[in-house]
Amino acid sequence: MDPVLVLVLCLSIWLLFSLWTQSHGKGKLPPGPTPLPIIGNSLQIDLKNISKSLSNLSKAYGPVFTLYFGMKPTVVLHGYEAVKEALIDRGEEFSGRGRFPMGEKTNNKVGLIFSNGKTWKEIRRFSLMTLRNFGMGKRSIEDRVQEEACSLVEELRKTKASPCDPTFILGCAPCNVICSIIFQNRFDYKDQDLLNLMKKLNENISILSSPWIQICNSFPLLIDYFPGSHNKVLNNIAYLKSFTLEKIKEHQESVDINNPRDFIDCFLIKMEQEKHNKQSEFTIESLAGIISDLFGAGTETTSTTLRYGLLLLMKYPEVTAKVQEEIDRVVGKHRNPTMQDRGSMPYTDAVLHEIQRYIDLVPTNLPHAVTQDVKFRNYLIPKGTVILTSLTSVLHNKKEFPNPETFDPHHFLDENGKFKKSDYFMAFSAGKRVCVGESLARMELFLFLTNILQKFTLKPLIDPKDIDITPVNNGLASVPPPYQLCFIPV
């Protein structure tokens, strides 16, 4: 018999046996399309738009179904009810971090995003406490964001109303806020270290959202043994780690245990307190991982949202005009907007929420995992099974948001024009793994955007109706197409 045929038969028998054991053994996974040997359901998933594929499959298999990305089963939760039940109502059981091979390769399962169990709980608790002590969500951090907003405006003035790509400038602002918390100091927008950091962070978010990385995550052997853009990500992360370790070394030589200056100092002090604990989670490797996570999550998510937001505001100038009218009426032209103004600016608040809802920044969320055997809607999901939660299905829910594919701030306004909250707004995820920096991101988006619109008119280079707002990548993140505009001083 042909050896290839024998191999195919063996693989098929193995796969069928594996499926049988999952259905009749320890676990009873939800239904789903029949996977093929080795490649699983890869042919049934559009890697350029996984979220759309999940939506189509949910019509056939319901809100809870199983897919195979390669040979590993993944339980998909589609729709608000299923996502809420898992992440909020049963948050502890669904609080694990699912396998994300590219993330594990870069961070070795340390830090905030890719760690699990006791490590994750201790590191998250410490990070939240430290960030709050340094003012996250408070007036003191608002002062830092305000200062950066002024620097951002001045940098935009230097463009002298000429066409420019805003990617770099909009990235520098949130990056500097993170730097001020981690390193105590910000960078000048022309600083070479900042230029290098932003270049590598921008490259990573684009590559990590590409179809190739989705393939690498399904078949991890590719990461170690094949050429490809994933190696660029690994090199960029190595650069960031080297930069971070140098900053940590500088802090080790100057830290004052009685007067911590920033996040790194606080962590080093905690390390000293636990130096006799051999099981301590507080190590230099862990600190480097946390800083890498804060940089990636704290810079790219906010800057991408701002960049996409400006594109939408150019596409819909009538929306921009209403925001600017509200800024003029509430704030005026002679002082900068503050967070206190937000309560008096329902339309602007609605626009910010609608930008985040519409762009659907992280369509399928980062993968979760169940921390124990879980009985969920008559299924038995074994401990460690990867859970994929479709945030698209929540943010674009037709019942909650009529015409969800349309950009419309009235999704967040009541009949009286007041801001209307929605439980379906899960732009920062939900539950135990909700974004650590949510309050900071909300503050940055409000202050950066209102400062820009107070000081400038946004002028596109083409007719607004011809502006393309379709994301160029829609994997890990929804990345807007590149564009240029003119910032015309008001």
Automatic annotation (TrEMBL):
Keywords, sorted A to Z: Endoplasmic reticulum, Heme, Iron, Membrane, Metal-binding, Microsome, Monooxygenase, Oxidoreductase, Signal
Q: Which GO terms describe its cellular component?
A: endoplasmic reticulum membrane
Q: Where is the signal peptide?
A: 1-25
Q: Which cofactor does it need?
A: heme
What GO molecular function terms would the record report?
A: heme binding; iron ion binding; oxidoreductase activity, acting on paired donors, with incorporation or reduction of molecular oxygen, reduced flavin or flavoprotein as one donor, and incorporation of one atom of oxygen
User: Alphabetically, which GO biological process terms does the record hold?
Assistant: organic acid metabolic process; xenobiotic metabolic process
Q: Where is this chain's protein located in or outside the cell?
A: Endoplasmic reticulum membrane; Microsome membrane
Q: EC?
A: 1.14.14.1
UniProt binding sites for heme: 435
The entry sums up its family as follows:
Belongs to the cytochrome P450 family.
Name of this protein: unspecific monooxygenase
User: What species is this protein from?
Assistant: Orycteropus afer afer
Origin organism lineage: Eukaryota, Metazoa, Chordata, Craniata, Vertebrata
